[in-house]
Amino acid sequence: MPGGQHKFEFVGKEPLVLWIVTSLLFANTALMLLLEFGSKHFFPKHAPEMVDWYAGRSIAIQFILLAVLAAIFIIFRKRVRYIRQK
To answer: What is the pTM of this model?
Structure first.
């Protein structure tokens, strides 16, 4: 079937920046989900200004982190190896 599953890995040690951006991506996802839940239960009428700022920009932050992750793979493309699936 076309498309299928693709697997990539780094040759040698992964760059530190990859771990940092991946951690930030997961933290941002968790905060977005927590904010969705918390806004109904903990901030029913008024939220702090910082929470409002983050809520308005969390999706943009998520896409920026995904773009940075893609850029890391492009920058370190000579160290990324494609693993063929059988």
So the answer is: 0.79
